[in-house]
Design goal:
Blueprint (H helix, E strand, L loop, with lengths): L7 H13 L5 H12 L5 H14 L2 E8 L7 E7 L1 H20 L8
Antiparallel strand pairs: 1-2
Helix pairs in contact: 1-2
Length: 109
């Protein structure tokens, strides 16, 4: 089995990239995490995570068109790789396995 170690924040970022699909760029990812997860995200932490996951092979990125509203700077768009999808699936399977292993009595039911 390959090592698919994902931290909680990495998992949230990867899932958000998937949710945003073709619109997954820095600010959109940050805003979506803050809205959907109710969690404040610093730009620095997000960019560090994106670079780290791209280096691990979980994400690919491409440069978009230049934008006059951004001072001529293009956006960098992210997509999940097949390896990233496998990492997410592994994380989901592991969580479900653990959830399903909890005895009903553990939650007082």
């Amino acid at each position: 089995m390959k090592d698919y170690a994902l931290g909680e924040f990495e998992e949230i970022v990867l899932l958000t990239v998937g949710v945003l699909y073709n619109d997954a760029y820095g600010v959109a990812i940050k805003d979506a995490i803050e809205e959907k997860a109710g969690r404040k995200v610093s730009v620095g932490a997000l960019h560090s995570a994106l670079k780290r996951m791209e280096k691990k092979g979980y994400l690919d990125s491409r440069i978009g068109e230049m934008n006059p509203q951004r001072g001529g700077k293009p956006k960098r768009y992210y997509t999940i790789t097949s390896y990233g999808k496998q990492a997410l699936q592994h994380s989901k399977d592991l969580r479900l396995k653990l959830w399903n292993s909890i005895p009903k009595l553990a939650f007082g039911s």
